[in-house]
Design brief:
Elements lengths: L14 E6 L22 E3 L4 E5 L6 H11 L24 H5 L2 E5 L6 E5 L3 H11 L17 H12 L4 E6 L7 H17 L2 E6 L3 H4 L5 E5 L4 E3 L6 H11 L1 H13 L1
Parallel strand pairs: 3-7, 3-8, 5-6, 6-7
Antiparallel strand pairs: 1-2, 1-4, 8-9
Helix pairs in contact: 4-5, 7-8
Subcellular location: Cell membrane
Pfam families: AAA_21, AAA_23
Protein name: ATP-binding protein
Length: 259
């Protein structure tokens, strides 16, 4: 039986800082260390309980989250501490383990309860927990959990877990959520934030999720992480253009595609 971690009477964030130790990088030409983001003085600080990272595909958001998840003791294919998903062979394609070996972290204090959510592996991880009947420190899965849709199952899963202290890492949760479910996820984030002992680190492309008011919003370019306002993100601007004139927006995009 796994021992449940003792609740620590301190508010989030618990992971305060991560930084790259250049002495631990064996080869700068090998991924992920070839990413422009991971320069010698790379550092990421967490000043609020919720940190949201935005940026285009290929900038390294998922890789960074995998590395942080591995630092917290989670499998970089997804899941919680000590859990290995059924399709763990896919984790061999991930780079979180190699990145975490070159990262250093500052904790106050160190918390390793929580979960690393990856949309593509979420149900495999959940099925593993269900079928293996593991001693889940969060109380186990409902017996009919896997009968739900992806989005409904995801929300139900985390509603069961967000009441407990931990670090929760979400890699593009909107992949599993319709727009209406994204609103429900915002409510879930708010409950986690109000509880005060949940730290959330999330990467997203969804402007609706970026809009959570009490969060640090960071934009990841190919070389830097910088604070950004919602309306200054490319994602918001593009969605605004579409909403202002859907027909014209699509027509222009199709014209450019055939030019």
């Amino acid at each position: 039986m796994a021992r449940r971690n003792r609740t620590i009477n301190m508010p989030a964030p618990y992971l305060r800082r991560v930084w790259l130790d250049p002495a631990r990088v064996a080869n700068r030409n090998v991924y992920p260390f070839a990413l422009p983001l991971l320069h010698d003085d790379f550092e990421l600080r967490f000043d609020k309980a919720i940190t949201i990272i935005v940026g285009e595909n290929g900038t390294g958001k998922s890789t960074l989250l995998e590395g942080i998840a591995a630092l917290a003791g989670y499998d970089d294919a997804g899941g919680g501490k000590g859990y290995m998903p059924v399709d763990h062979s896919r984790a061999l394609e991930k780079t979180g383990g190699s990145l975490s070996s070159a990262l250093r972290a500052s904790w106050l204090p160190k918390i390793t309860n929580g979960w690393f959510f990856r949309a593509e592996s979420f149900f495999s991880v959940a099925r593993y927990l269900d079928e293996a009947a593991l001693d889940d420190p969060f109380g186990g899965l409902p017996p009919d959990f896997l009968s739900h849709s992806h989005g409904e199952g995801f929300l139900r899963f985390f509603n069961e877990r967000c009441q407990r202290q931990g670090i929760f890492i979400f890699d593009e949760p909107e992949s599993a959520l319709s727009p209406s479910r994204q609103i429900e996820f915002l409510k879930l984030l708010h409950r986690m934030n109000e509880i005060g002992h949940c730290q959330v680190i999330m990467a997203t492309h969804a402007p609706m999720l970026m809009a959570y008011p009490d969060a640090t919003l960071l934009r990841l370019t190919r070389g830097e992480l910088e604070p950004v306002g919602l309306k200054n993100t490319d994602h918001y601007r593009l969605m605004r253009q579409f909403c202002d004139d859907p027909e014209g927006f699509v027509a222009e995009a199709l014209t450019e595609a055939t030019a």
